[in-house]
User: What shape does this take?
Amino acid sequence: MKRLLLFLLTNVAVLALITIIVRATGADAALAQRGMDWHSLLVFAAVIGFAGSLISLALSKWQAKTFMGVQVIGQPQTESASWLLETVREHASRVGIAMPEVGIYDGAEMNAFATGASRNHALVAVSSGLLRGMTRQEAHAVLGHEMTHAANGDMVTLALIQGVVNTFVIFLSRVLGTLLDGFISGGRTQERRGPGPFYFVSVIVLQVVLGLLANIIVMWFSRQREFRADAGGARLDGAGNMIAALERLQAGEGAALPGSLRTFGISGETTSGLRRLFMSHPPIPERIAALREGRYANA
Assistant: This one.
């Protein structure tokens, strides 16, 4: 709740700053001259920007069950399924959230994820490869990592951040597109209202560029939450077990999850150069180093 309140207050401050900048630069008058009400545009951008991310969050459990083939455990039929349920129940009690749905999906890679529309209506799923490839202590730590994600409300916060950046991409691309159209068209725009011939091209180009920059912000947050979830796994199961689990992922067949579920897995892709800015997960050696140094122990 505190994190959500801080998030909302931050966005109110950002909106207030945008209002001051638009008025101080005279951009509001320039936009009005071209027939654009920037207040209405901001509302439109927020509706469109948040709609996609919130719908994706609401459907995340359905997507996992449908496209990942996650089989939710009702009455456990195997010893592994019973152990999985009891471990998640133990973690749920310790982190103070409702018991999530627990499932297994078929996959040779070692991976696990938590998703859901709220911390008390989550789904935690592990791959069959993780159950086969990790020791119980390592898997126990992985589940602690995922339950920390759920307890921190990371799924909701990431969706809200995505909604905010989507809003600003839509808003700024249209504001800048209108101003650029007026600049390129020169005095010819003084005699008409509404977008000119360069507006739509400008908006498309700006939306692509700003979208890439916005994605860097979202991925940075995603990487920070992985460090915090690792620290949570270490608190629940010991730093040694969490480090051992990460080392197992590094040495094994860890693989990123598909589509919108990629940012929710414990294992992600490793890359270098500028592409690091678009990684949803930090490199595993950096995560291990953070645990050994206790950098996120109090996060």
